[in-house]
Structures are given as C-alpha cells and as structure tokens.
Design a protein that fits this description.
Elements (H helix, E strand, L loop, with lengths): L1 E3 L2 E8 L2 E8 L4 E5 L12 H7 L3 E5 L18 H14 L5 E6 L2 H11 L4 E7 L21 H9 L4 E2 H5 L4 H7 L2 H11 L20 H12 E2 L21 H14 L2 H5 L4 H7 L12 E6 L3 H5 L1 H5 L8 E7 L6 H4 L1 H15 L1
Helix pairs in contact: 2-3, 7-9
C-alpha cells in the first residue's frame, strides 16, 4: 500500500474484482463514485475535506477504469454489478454501511445502490444526475424510464442524427474516434461540458432552468446529438486554454489512465442502459426513502435536461434534504466548484449521522 500524505492507495478484492481504492480519514464511511471519463482522481478535492470533517472518505476506480479490473464482456458492466461492487467494497473495508456519493455515471449507480440496497447505503448524494429510477439518466420527456431509453434517444435526435448515448453504445465507434488523440479528446470533453465555453447568442442571458420544453429539447439536441458519421468531435470544442480548475497535470492523469486502460470498459456502462432498464423493472415505482441530496450546476447540460426529474423528485424521494444548484457551474461539479461542493456534502453528511 502506497501513501501520499494522509491519502492511502491500495487494491482491494471485492465482488470478484480488483478495485483500486484511494482513501483518507477515519470515521463513518463515505463511498465516492466517479463518472465518465474520469477516475478516483475526480474526488481529489473531496478526500481531504471529508477526512478533516471526521469521515473515512473512499474513492475508487470503478470496474473498467484506471487501476481496477477490466472485465472483457459488455454484460459485466450492468448497473446491478456496479452496485454489487460497491456493496462488496463496503464489506471488504470492514464497515457495516456507508453513505454513497456519485457524479455523472456514478450518480445513477449511487442512486440505485441506495434505492435497492438501503441497509448498506443509508444515505445518498448525487452530482449532476438526479434520481430517475429506471430512467438512469433522467432524459427530458421520460425522466423516470416509463419507456425504453432508445425511444427517447430517437425523439431527442430526430431521424438523421444520433444522441450521444446511442453513439457510445455502438461497438468501437467512440474508441476509434478517441484513439486518434486521447489527451485532446479528454481536453475537449472536459472543456465543452464545463461552464467555460460561452453560451450561444440565443441563450445568452437566459434562465436555463426555465426554458420552455421545446427550447430545452432543441438545446439538448444541438449540444448532444450529431450525425453519427461526424462523431462526438462535431459537437465538442477544443479549449483555447485549459480551464482554471483543470491543470495540465490533472489532464495528464486522465490521459495516462485511458491511454493504458482503454475506453471499452467505461463505454460498456452506456452499452448496458437498455439492459439496466430491464434489470430495474422490479423496482419501478418504488420510492427512495433514505436521506438524499442533489447538487448540480446551472450550466451543466445534464442538470438542464433533467429539469422534469428534479421538479418531480418528491414523487420518488421521500427524504429530500436539499437540492443545491451552483451558479456558473458546468458538468464537472466537484472539480469546477470544490469548495461549495464540499460544504454541501459535509452539511448533508453531518445531518444524516
């Protein structure tokens, strides 16, 4: 086990996987789940803050990422397997239960863990993606997954374009595109989905949380749908310079992780969305009864498109402690606005015991 100051790094066997775990502090366990395309490193600002607040903060490379196992079959990345990894990790760390915090893909996994395994995950906080039940990513028009995800994809994209989640599900497509220059791909996706790019003239000065439904869907279509032959690069922008919250060293960390580990495992999360919808059918309509917190950014396209899920949250979340929307914040919430994120998380955790 290597150490860096108070931060410890080790590999833990859980649920048949070798999981690279980074932890700090002592006290009640808080499990931190990252998103795409990230690693445990996306929680680098939260680990010491949570430790200072009296918690045992544990971030890990989820299966398919970084220093953790990378199963070869797409079906090994179903959401039920990802929840099982977290549950087994809690046990392997010797804790009876944990609060779970997730961002991006980590958010629906965290929500599902607290929803389906409440005895282990007694409280949940999620960043960027609100609770959507079977809906996973809280898409406009069908936030709670009453229909198959593919139907909503086609509504958002129209007949001649593809929604990015559908594109990511095409075997090899995104891998081939990103492989041309992994570091440049990561720089463009981090920049384009942050609060750094200027808003289109049509949206400048608009209250993005109050867009009419038809405008909201047009915004999502323009930002996240494209001709599949043009690829994701057609809707991303190369940064004129890295945002203040992302240093060259930070970008190097991510680039090295994906250059060595590849993107097939991480993209397999998307390739299971239809299967996840089927696997979660037994829980359809069930409420999430543990304490819950949502944190989003008002410039985050995901927080913007999930407005209906956020507005209808009391239908499914019976113990909502707070919803925090950070002004001038994009998709990479805990990295773009670490201080405010830390305050919100610690206030929530202190209140749930």
């Amino acid at each position: 086990m290597a150490t860096d100051g108070r931060v410890q790094s080790e590999v833990v066997e859980a649920n048949g996987q070798q999981l690279h775990v980074v932890s700090a502090g002592e006290g009640p366990l808080v499990l931190l789940l990252h998103g795409f395309p990230e690693t445990w490193y996306s929680w680098r600002h939260q680990l010491p803050a949570l430790a200072d607040a009296g918690y045992r903060a544990v971030a890990f490379d989820m299966r398919g990422y970084g220093g953790s196992s990378k199963p070869g079959r797409v079906e090994d990345y179903a959401i039920t397997d990802l929840v099982a990894d977290g549950k087994a990790l809690v046990r392997a760390l010797g804790a009876p239960r944990a609060a779970v915090v997730g961002h991006d893909w980590g958010a629906p996994i965290a929500w599902t863990a607290a929803w389906t395994e409440p005895d282990v995950f007694h409280a949940v906080a999620a960043l960027s993606v609100p609770f959507a039940g079977r809906g996973i990513t809280a898409l406009p028009g069908d936030p709670f997954g009453e229909r198959r995800p593919g139907e909503t994809y086609r509504e958002l994209s129209g007949p001649d374009r593809v929604f990015y989640q559908e594109y990511f599900s095409i075997p090899g497509a995104m891998e081939e595109e990103a492989a041309k220059d992994v570091r440049a791909f990561l720089a463009s996706i981090f920049y384009s989905l942050s609060a750094s790019p200027p808003l289109p003239d049509a949206l400048a000065g608009a209250d993005l949380s109050a867009l009419p439904d038809e405008v909201l869907r047009a915004v999502v279509g323009g930002a996240m749908c494209f001709d599949r032959t043009a690829g994701l690069a057609s809707v991303l922008a190369a940064p004129p310079s890295l945002p203040d919250w992302l240093s060259a060293e930070d970008l190097d960390h991510y680039a090295q992780a994906f250059a060595s580990g590849g993107l097939t495992g991480p993209l397999s999360y998307y390739r299971n969305i239809e299967r996840d919808w089927e696997l979660l059918e037994p829980y359809a309509g069930r409420t999430l009864d543990g304490p819950s917190l949502f944190i989003g950014g008002d410039r985050d396209i995901v927080t913007i498109w999930s407005r209906e899920a956020r507005e209808r949250a009391p239908e499914l979340r019976t113990d909502m402690r707070d919803d925090v929307i950070l002004s001038g914040c994009g998709h990479w919430v805990q990295q773009e606005r670490p201080a405010e994120t830390n305050v919100a998380l610690i206030d929530f955790l202190d209140g749930v015991g």
